[in-house]
Amino acid sequence: MTKPLKQIHLAAHFPGVNNTTVWSDPRAGSHIEFSSFAHFARTAERAKFDFLFLAEGLRLREQGGKIYDLDVVGRPDTFTVLAALAAVTDHLGLTGTINSTFNEPYEVARQFASLDHLSGGRSAWNVVTSWDAFTGENFRRGGFLPQEERYSRAKEFLATANELFDSWRGDEILADQETGRFLADAKAGAFVHTGAHFDIHGRFNVPRSPQGRPVVFQAGDSDEGREFAAKEADAIFSRHGTLAAGQAFYTDVKARLPKYGRGRDQLLILPAATFALADTDAEAEELAREVRRQQVSGATALKHLEFVWNRDLSAYDPDGPLPDIDPDVGGDHISQGRAQVRMYRDPVATAREWRELAAANQWSIRDLVIHTGNRQNFVGSPATIARSLNDFVQADASDGFILVPHTTPTGLDEFADKVVPLLQEQGVFRTEYEGTTLRDHLGLAHPDGIRDERAAS
């Protein structure tokens, strides 16, 4: 019996603080002006994408005590942007990264419930933690939470938020048919939570929203993060972009679901994916090489090397050889607010490996960073990329992709116009939205036992 084709889920990632955006491209626009967000969201909705994904940056990154100015240096508030986008879109899901370390459950639950009302049931929450005291200083909490406790707080944070969402039930809401106002009985919104991280009680003041709860995303890749996702999340924003790594991750996480009474279709795996699209495969390959060189300028290459060496390398020639000195493994790190710092657990071993690679290939510092950094996941003509995307999903390496273009806000336009129609022709991607909420788009059930009476009437 032929296995039915899986439907591909597609989403669009508006890049935040990143090393992906090619700022030298004349098409690169503002990451602050609302017109950029609006264009990006409208393109994603025109292509019938599931959702837009908005990252968050709680502190400007620094290197050597100075603002790191080689990528975006600002980020407007996530909820403000998503609420504004709700007014210029009708179907597109609106996903925001909101930190569980430096916020409080009541305020976050209230914001997401409000966004879900404003958007008609299209909100989603990417639950993240923060491990560094550097970011915490913005909240007068620098170092207040040991790294090993971040998931403990995240789990209780999400559980507490769900208690607040669930404190309004459908049978507690009465609608005045003449005025359209909602009335509630004495039980509505009442909550009590006592735990290791939160001890709160009171009354939640936002009625039940169209989805009941926002869709929950999780992005951690550790064993603890995978377990958290298997138990609590609706989707994972993963980083595994190759077929073999994607299949291994997919198999591992899906296998964890039964212990929590969940089926394979109750958790979607959606890796981030970049692409280089051109009329022919050869042109796309050339474009990919050009984009990589634009993404890694000489200054960027030196800064990237400093992540590992933990030294000021500004005196080195980026087109010259790698430093022959070893990384400084003592004292404070030269880079603050950067996830990359954690990627190199053994800087001395990494430096040795990189020197050997550079020597064997006659690479300069810049060449090394270009070749060892992230590459485009999909490169080719529209037909090639459509086929590759579909092959990846049908091989159970993912359930779809969150696309990250290298220019914003127009970097998604060509994909929407040339690749999406091919996926639709193959019958693996929708031609129209079939529901109204993000849970509908993702094929996810509403929370058990919870029903929005207004949506049903």
UniProtKB/TrEMBL annotation:
Record's keyword terms, sorted: Flavoprotein, FMN, Monooxygenase, Oxidoreductase
UniProt xrefs under Gene3D superfamilies: Luciferase-like domain (3.20.20.30)
Protein name in UniProt: NtaA/DmoA family FMN-dependent monooxygenase
Protein EC: 1.14.-.-
Record flagged with keyword Oxidoreductase: yes
Family to which the UniProt record says this protein belongs: Belongs to the NtaA/SnaA/DszA monooxygenase family.
One MF term in the entry's GO annotations: monooxygenase activity
Domain of life the protein comes from: Bacteria
Organism of derivation: Streptomyces iakyrus
Taxonomic path: Bacteria, Bacillati, Actinomycetota, Actinomycetes, Kitasatosporales
